[in-house]
Amino acid sequence: MNKWLVTIFAVALVQVTYAQSVNDLANELRVIIGSKQANISINIGLQSKLITQTRQALRDTTSKAISNLRGQLIGLNDVAKTAITNASQQSKSIEQCIADEQAALSPLNIDDIRNCANSDILTLAGSLLGQLGAVQGDLGSAVRNCIQLSPLDLTEIRSCVDNALVDVDDSVNTINNEIQSLVNAALESTEECTKAEETQLNGVISDIEENLNKCVDAILNA
Question: Which residues are the signal sequence here (predicted)?
Answer without folding.
Answer: 1-19
